[in-house]
């Protein structure tokens, strides 16, 4: 019998084929026998459609289909990520186009609108994944804000808190003045820029800085211990002429001072520089603590100097404006020795908006990372986890061995709220994942306030392998954990993979996956992914 071949391709053909595949039941491992083989799909962000890079999910589909044909009990579990900060940035751009702002909305209304936005996008993404023919088990699909997933995330946080591995402290953090939130070290990128380097007279010294506007927050002058001048000046006070009047400054000695920078003498501004904050912590008994002179919006705040008329000259100016004016005034006062107009250096900027990061000292939640990193290092060293390509193993080791405590709190409205409470009378910090405490466990006061921060999205997604399985059922967790392969882009080896290994080992006492398979990136003409 002859059949006419259609002149145009009917896309419905693929839909019909996929429907047959789904109805067959073979995407669901409950209908299969053999040893388990599990891949948890790296959940795409539920803030838009899939992009061309998601086509690389085909690598996982190949592995799953191959193992399924070999008779394995294969599970490929799909999901979507609420993507905290990323999604809030996308949604705020949408609000801007509509002439709206989240700051004119209640937190509850904002959250509701973003939730509806992500659910709509999630539905689109599921349709796209099906159109691509991926053999995912849709009966087990999960969202990182599903109540049972959040429950697992809270249990991990409570365990970390009870074990003394998570703490709240005022430390210097990366602050984005546009998005009004802290960022982790991994969310900060560095751009090479050329700026003036100012050589400022500081009593008997001349020191170099690219940020003369921060001099109002200086608490010390520092020398390297190998500097010959350290013998005469260590521990002494020097008289300094300044724009707000004459003042005295203590000279300290610390090996963190770079002898090769400028004149080898540096000013210490612990409220606005991460290295300076570290120096202050080591010399807290010798010099004053951090003096904040830049507010959350990136403007000068010299209110601590009272009614000093000269301080009022700079108060309220944006940092860039203040830098220019301070430099001009220093020159007029004869306090600048010279200016290097072509100083090349790296500047920390927000990875989303590219605004310059303003380090700030503020209370945040941190995870003590080294106790978690050590078993994660051993798991790779002992080849319990294999990283492919092998060259990334060396990169992983270097990063893990030099890791710093992780700031997991964000000042955004979209995400998983941190289940912490504070007593306003005694300052006691409490964590309760069930309900707000009725009274302070320390002083019995009933003046309790809720933490308004949310978790860094990588804290929740770092628990994805075991959280997604546990959220389905304890039976699924026992049957399919540890998973077999984690396949993802090499660029999130530290953002995500390392954190999954650390949190997985901590929470379950087992590795989250046996193999890490890292693929390359799909880039545009400007080499942006």
User: How many runs of DSSP E, i.e. beta strands?
Assistant: 23
Beta fraction of the residues? 15-25%
CATH architecture of the largest domain: 3-Layer(aba) Sandwich
Number of domains: 2
User: How much helical structure, as a percent, in the residues?
Assistant: 25-40%
Which overall shape is indicated by the principal axes computed on the Cα atoms?
A: elongated
Sheet of most strands:
4 strands, antiparallel
Strands of the largest sheet, in order across it?
A: 6-5-14-16
- What is the number of helical segments per DSSP (H or I, 4+ residues)? 15
Mean pLDDT figure: 94
* CATH class designation of the largest domain: Alpha Beta
Distance between the termini: 51 Å
- Structural class label: alpha/beta
CATH superfamily placement of the largest domain: HUPs
Low-confidence stretches: none
CATH topology label of the largest domain: Rossmann fold
